[in-house]
Amino acid sequence: MSRIVSRRQFLAYSSAAAAVAGTAGILPLTRAAADTSAPTDLRIVQRNLEVLGKPAKVFGIVRANGQPGLFLQPDERFNVNLLNQVGEDAVIHWHGMTPPYLQDGVADSKRPLIVPGKSAAYDFVPQPGTHWMHSHHGLQEQLLMAAPLIVRTKEDVAADVQEVTVLLHDFTFKNPVDVLNGLTKGSTSAASHDMSMPGMDMSGGGNMNMPGMDMSGGSTMKMESGQTMSPADSMQMDLNDVNYDAYLANDRTLEDPEVVRVERNGRVRLRLINGATSTAFYLHFLDLSGDLIAVDGNPIKPVNIKRIGVSMGQRIDVLITLPRSGSFPILAQREGDTARTGIILASPGASVGKVDSVASRKSETLDLSLEATLRPLQPLSARAADVTHKIQLTGSMQPYVWSIDGLTWENHRPLKVSEGQRVVVEMVNQTMMAHPMHLHGHHFQVIGINGVPVNGAVRDTVLVPAMASVSVAFDAHNPGRWPLHCHNLLHMATGMMTEVVYDQYA
Questions:
Q1: Average pLDDT in the 455-475 region?
Q2: With contact defined as beta carbons under 8 Å apart, do 21 and 27 qualify?
Q3: Looking at domain 387-505, which of 3.30.750.24, 3.40.1190.10, 2.60.40.420, 3.40.50.300 is its CATH number?
């Protein structure tokens, strides 16, 4: 499906127009009235998807009009009624939000799962930027229980820019529990290593019956020439736990990509979300270049790029000026591989040719060379650390168990903090796999890479490459028990998760 939207028309779109336009570009919801007192209804649903010509049953998170996710306007509260319409327990984490502890969307003894047919209410001030929502129970995220969560600013509304949101996924026709059991050789399961918090039933995992997938992932590769050297350069790294059946951009492969119509010589703000379960991507602009203006929803000093690595859970905003009429593929290629997905930007009347889903050469391994150069527009205030926690990321492909300080989730050691403290967490990766580490309820600033101080970006998910270290700092201003975990779902499911715990919740 394709469409034509001028930049100014885009900003004036109503929710009714979005419903008519379909899913192309994942248009934002704008309310006809200024009254935001009534909650927005979101539904967790099962839906049918066609992938590579074959039917698949997957999950989704949709509004009343059937469109995925939530797009909030400036000063609009996150006021949501979430209804579970699938046949199993679920809970949705608002990734990138900093809500009160009880509204984070993670189940524990104080925050129950949403049982089928029931709903939960959420109401808090949202964090501006490009974010997303996804299941935090069992392995449901692998079955696409995820959607965009975009919170626009007044500056976004005033800009004469067309916004295009892209949600990436890795896709399998197989039951995710079988995928995990194949990696662990049956020694564990999603039922015994869930990402739910203590005191909850851990049996969720996405129980829809789904056929066949290649399980040959987990091979080793060396970093390619031309990349910034790291402590792991002389060693072999493990990449890509699983070889998936397909890689999706807004639910579609490059066999039938989404075509988004754009103005000639117009400007496009690409909001890209890596919602993949265990796949990092390199984003390639080919004939275009753009200015990276935000990471994980937080503005940075613009950096001109032609390609960029994006790990699981991370988001980027790129401002692209189209130089001429034509069609322009935006491609996401799997790390260390030739498989790719993407969308196509096309000006009115431009022909759109087929783009191969297999690249001519493998992509590089993600590193932190660009990360080290990013500078935030709103850094933390200058202040000494009150408490420093050093953790080691541990585990291996054989046996397939991932942990923190050698401890899996069942035996984790919480990181204790007090309200008002400046907290530093140094993460030292002792494994031969990279881990995108995500902290709930806070955004942190990257302050060190491999022992070298940096005035880095503000994020909520940072990549810690194999045999590397990354230090982050945040202010403890949101009391609760907050998960800190690898956003490779399969790593988290086998134990790579701990908590940041405030005194009053210890």
A1: 98
A2: yes
A3: 2.60.40.420
